[in-house]
C-alpha cells in the first residue's frame, strides 16, 4: 500500500513522543537485524517491532523497513492494530521479511457482556446489540433515538418534542411502582453514564443486557436492565471526518379548535352566558367582525418553524502502538415553540497505547455542556402547561392592544383565566445548564498467557443549575425568580481478574473475578424570591427581591461495595454454561440489611451438528437462564426519621429558620429483588444471510420499595408524611423477536432489513395492608384537584382513574336525585356512571402503558446511492387526553368551549351526546386509543470517492426526513407526546400516557454533508 511522505513524518514524530514518554531504552546486541513488514497491499508504516520480554523496540518507516539490534536468542514481536501479532525468532538471520494478516478474531462479532466480552456465538444470556451502522444514515442528535425500535425488549418513548427534553428508556417493562425504572448506563466500563449528554457519533456499539442471567453481574444496579456503550477507537491510517447537517422543524398539523372560527366561539359563549342566567357578552356587530376579520389563534402565535444546526468533527487512527479517537460536536436546536431551544457542546478524547505485548493502557475523557431554554415542564403549573394555556385562551382577544402592549388577560374575562401565553413565553427566561466531565482509565496487564488483570478507574463530575426568571400577573405585576444548583461527584474503582484456559481443544473455562467500589455525593442548593423590580429582566439574584420565599439545601451521599465471580464453561463448542454471583453492600440501608447476594445461571446448547447437512438452516442454539438482581432505589436517609430544615417567610417578607417532619424512618428497609426466567432460540439460515432470535421471559419484582402514607394522627393525609416499606409485587411477562435478513446481496446492490418486536404484559400483583388500589399523584389542572392516575392490583402500572362518561342526560331521562333530594343533573349535562347513592363512580378507565412495540429498519445501497427507511409502531395503550378536556370547557380555569365539535352540542331540539355545560376533565370521554405507526426516518444519500483526485477522500450529500407521517386515531398532536409537570411527584411509569398539553413532536427535514479524508 502506497504511503505518503507526511505519513512518515507523522509516524516518526508520534513515535518519538511515545518512546520518550515510556522511557524506552535501547540495548545493543551482537547483531543488527533489518527487515520489511508488509500486508496484502504493500509496506506497512508504523508497525511495532519489540524484543519479547523487554521494552526494547522500534517501528517501520515509510517503506515498511526497520532496523533493530538483537541477539540470536531473541524473539521479535511484530504487531499492528487490526492485524494478528506475530512472533519471529531471530536465530542467525540478519534479514527478516514479515507479512501481516488481518486478525480473524476481530472479524467475528464480539459482544460486551460487562467486565469482559464474549463471541456472539458463545452467548447464554439475553443481549441485544445496536451498532453505529444501523443508525448512521439517520441524522440523530440523541442516543435514545438510536435505540428506538432497533433493539427488541427496549422501549423508547419521546415524551415531548422539546429539544433537549426527556426521553424515557425502559428494558422489558417496568418494575418499580415509585422508584426510577431507567436502565443502568455503562460507558467504557464506567457505570452511571448519561445518554442525554453523549454524542451519538462517538458510539461504536451498544449492547443491552436484558435478562437477569446477564444483568446479575451488576447486582443491585442491574434490576432495570443495562445498556453498555463502547465508544469509538482509532485504527489504521489517520482519518478526519466532518459531518454537518441543518434541520427545519415544524408542527405536522394544528389541533382544530374554534379559534379558527371565532364568530362561532362568540355565539357559543353568548349561549353559555344566557344558559346560566347571564347576558350575552358579544354584540351582533362584534360577531360579524369576527366572521369577517377572524380572531387570534394562540396555537399559531406560539408555534413556529425551528432551524437547527449540528456539526461533528472527528480524527482517528493509529500510529504504531498508539491509537486515538478525538471528536467535537456542536448542536444548536431551535424549538418549534417560541423562545425555546437547546444548545450543546461536547468533546471526547479516547487514547490507548499498547505499551508492551503484556501491557495496554487507555484513557478516555469526555466533556459536555448543554443549555436548555425554557423547559416545558418548568413553565407548567397547577393550571396546565403553556400549550394548555394557549389552546384554551380567548381567541377574540389579540396578543397586543392598540398601543402595542400585551393584553394580559382576556378582554371579555372568558376562556382561560391565565396570563397571555405569548407574554409568558417571550418574557420568561428559564435556563437549565447541564455540565458533565467523565474520565475512564483502563489498564490491562497479561500476567501470563492465561491470566489477565484489568484496573478500571473512573470519575464523573456533573453540575446542573436552573436559573428562572418568570413573569406573572398579580396586583403589582412584578416578576419573580428562583435558582437551583446541584453538584454530583462520583468515582468508581474496579479490579478485574480474568483466567482463561483451553483443555485439549474440548473444554474451555473462563473465570472472572471483580472487586469494585463506587461513591457518589449529591449536593443541592436553592432559593425562591418574588416581587423583583420592574425592568430587572433576566436578573436571577435574590438581593433585588422584596419577598424571599424559600431557601434550602440537600445532601445525598451513596456508597456501594461489591464482589463478583463469573464462570463461563464451553464444552466442544456445543454446550455453554455461565454462572454468576454478586455480593453488594449499599450505604442506603442499615448495617444489618446492607449486604445482598444476587446469583444467576444460564445454559445454552448448540444444535449445529444436527443441522450441518441442512441447506437452509446454518446455525441453531437453545438458551435458558435464571437470575436475581436488586434495587436500592430509596433516598440515602430513608431508614432514618428526618426533618426538613428551611427558611420560611411567615410574614411574606422576612424569612425565618424552621423545620418540619419530612419522613418517618424504617430501619428494616432492604432490597427490592427482581427474579427473571428467560428462554430463547437463535436461528441462522441461508449460510448466515438471515438470523432469527426469539426469547420469552417472566420477571417478578418483590419487596418493592414504596412510600406508604401515614395515618392522619401523623399528619399523613394532609402533609403527605410517609414511611418507606418493602411492600408490593409487580410482574412482567413477555417475548422479544429479532429478525435480520440480507434480501439482496450483489456487487452493486445490497438490501438489508432488520425487524424487532417486543411484547410485555405488566401487572401489579399485590400492594400492602390488603389494599387492591391506591391513588397516584397526578392531579388534573384547572383547580379541580382530581387525581388522574392510580395503582390497581391485577392491572398494569399506568392506570387512569376517573368517571365513566355515558353521554348526556336527555329530556326524556328519569334523572335521579341525591341524598338531599335534588336532581344530580339537568338535561344537556354530562352523564356519568353513578353508584347506589347516585354519586359519580371514580374508577379505572384506561391504561397508558404500551404492551407491543416494533421497529422495521431497511438499508439499501446501490453503487454510490444509499437509502434508509425506518418504521416504528407502538400498540396496546391509551392516552388520557386531558388537553381535549380543557378545550371542551371542562371547568376551573378554562371555562369556555373551544372544541370544534361543540357546534353540535346538546340543545332541546338537538339532543346529542356532546354536553352543553361544563364537565369533568377526569372522565373516560377523554381516554383515546394511542396506537400508532410512524415513518421515523427516510434518508437518501450519494457518496463521491477520491474527490478532486485525492486518494481515500469521500464526500456524502444526504437528505433526510423524520416523523414524516403518523397513522393513528388519536385526536391530539401525537400519542407519544405526553406531559408531566414538575410539581407532580411520583413515578413517571405510574402516570404514563397523560397529556395535559405536551410540547408537540415536530416533523423535521434535514440536509447534510459528510466529508472524510
Automatic annotation (TrEMBL):
<keyword id="KW-0813">Transport</keyword>
<dbReference type="InterPro" id="IPR023997">
    <property type="entry name" value="TonB-dep_OMP_SusC/RagA_CS"/>
</dbReference>
<dbReference type="GO" id="GO:0009279">
    <property type="term" value="C:cell outer membrane"/>
</dbReference>
<dbReference type="InterPro" id="IPR012910">
    <property type="entry name" value="Plug_dom"/>
</dbReference>
<dbReference type="Pfam" id="PF07715">
    <property type="entry name" value="Plug"/>
</dbReference>
<keyword id="KW-0732">Signal</keyword>
<keyword id="KW-1134">Transmembrane beta strand</keyword>
<dbReference type="InterPro" id="IPR036942">
    <property type="entry name" value="Beta-barrel_TonB_sf"/>
</dbReference>
<dbReference type="Pfam" id="PF13715">
    <property type="entry name" value="CarbopepD_reg_2"/>
</dbReference>
<keyword id="KW-0472">Membrane</keyword>
<keyword id="KW-0998">Cell outer membrane</keyword>
<comment type="similarity">
    <text>Belongs to the TonB-dependent receptor family.</text>
</comment>
<dbReference type="InterPro" id="IPR037066">
    <property type="entry name" value="Plug_dom_sf"/>
</dbReference>
<keyword id="KW-0812">Transmembrane</keyword>
<feature type="signal peptide">
    <location>
        <begin position="1"/>
        <end position="29"/>
    </location>
</feature>
<dbReference type="InterPro" id="IPR039426">
    <property type="entry name" value="TonB-dep_rcpt-like"/>
</dbReference>
<feature type="domain" description="TonB-dependent receptor plug">
    <location>
        <begin position="120"/>
        <end position="226"/>
    </location>
</feature>
<dbReference type="InterPro" id="IPR008969">
    <property type="entry name" value="CarboxyPept-like_regulatory"/>
</dbReference>
<protein>
    <submittedName>
        <fullName>TonB-linked SusC/RagA family outer membrane protein</fullName>
    </submittedName>
</protein>
<dbReference type="InterPro" id="IPR023996">
    <property type="entry name" value="TonB-dep_OMP_SusC/RagA"/>
</dbReference>
